[in-house]
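go over whats below:
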Amino acid sequence: MSNYPKPDGPTLRAIYEKAARIQFNDERVIKEIKAGKLVMPFYSTRGQEIIPAAISVSLTDDDYVNTIYRGGHDQIAKGFPLSDYWAEIAGRVTGACKGKGGPMHLTYPAKGIMVTTGIVGSTAPIANGLAWAAKLEGKGRVTIANFGDGAANIGAVHEAMNMAALWQLPVIFVCQNNAYAEHTSMARSTRVDSYAKRAAGYAMEGIRVDGNDPDEMYGVARWAIDRARAGEGPTFIEATTFRFNGHLIGEAGGYMDKELYAASQTRDPMPILRRRLVEEGIVAAGELDALDASIRAEIDAAVRTAYAADYPDPSELKVDVLVDAIA
């Protein structure tokens, strides 16, 4: 990985701040669900925080991000306001989608968070559309298409990769390989040992990277983003990681390999990065404590504000759905 850019101290701190906001928010959502205050499906991203945090520090608000139902980390890393996030997952009218999208369809175009979809593999062709528009505009905008290892076997992803390579679109396909597609391991679903190898079939740059390593993740992402901005076409990044919770909050995760799961806990990227920042003198421990407390307070405020808001009126049922009822 020596040929890729390296994050400096301020960048590593920025990555930590984004990742900590993701972690604390994820843990708070789970806490609210277990307390019976939120009733919804939730797909935890605990363990995958570094991937979007290390990507987003090289993006602007004008760049686009598409993600999937397990995409809270991608959304928050890109700058989704927590007040709008919490009001939406709580189904309140003050939410980003008026409380009608819920946790699986979080969208916030002002920060470039264009689509969150529950259709596996659909982020890739949607990203191509956005990237094609960006290429026509000629403003250097980049589009990130996030999906999991299961989606990497979906036909739409391959069709999108072929088209992106053919048209040299400014899109980056990010496969967040957390070892399990829902309840199925990669070994049981895929013959190839690395999804990144498939990029060669489309004459596309393909790189496999440790998604829990902020240096590697930042370097490859920055390199791919710079290439896309310069008109040099798409990149496929396979970011290896591991999700610490089951596919869906509430299921036991008994299908996970126990040794692999235990090993992943020892490589939790969050305490590793925090310890590094202190040991290398990048950020003092006291400053990180204050930062953590500030983030938790921000989440507390967002939760209180969300619960205090109203639910959508029944009259909103058809608004923004039918063409003759667009607000």
Summary: The longest strand covers residues 171-177. The CA atoms of residues 217 and 273 lie 13 Å apart. The chain has eleven helices and eight strands.
